[in-house]
Amino acid sequence: MKLWFPIIVPALAALAQQSVNYALVALECRQQERLPLHFVAAVALVVTLIGAAIAWGRWREAGMDEPEDRGEQRTRTRFLAIVGFWVSALMALAVAAQWLTSAFVSPCVQ
């Protein structure tokens, strides 16, 4: 069950970051204060990196060699760990890209 966290939660964190950023744009433009956008991005990035760390740890525990084509518990754990690591890494890149956009593009651009 611990391996579902790196697969599901980082994607939800990236989507939540985007949704919260859209909600904060009007406030950011009015107050000219970007700290809430940076805070949301930092939290989302930490969540995605925690997911990657969990998956990496489980991958190392299950063995980092090539997955075999058997239906053993170890093979399933290794597969989910690999998928979780790469999903978390991809979501970390998405969060970082959104963060860079909010850092360099003014929220008042129309």
Give the overall silhouette: rod-shaped
Helix content: over 70%
* Low-confidence spans: none
Radius of gyration equals 17 Å
Please report the distance between the alpha carbons of the first and last residues: 44 Å
Report the count of strand segments: 0
Mean pLDDT: 88
The sequence of SSEs as H and E is: HHH
Proportion of residues in extended strands: under 5%
Number of helices: 3
What structural class results from the helix and strand content?
A: mainly alpha
- What does the main sheet amount to? none
Main attributes of the structure:
mainly alpha
What does this structure look like?
The chain has three helices and no strands. It is an all-alpha fold and 110 residues long. Helix 1 packs antiparallel against helix 2 and helix 1 runs parallel beside helix 3.
Structure, briefly:
The chain is mainly alpha-helical. It is 79% helix and 0% strand.
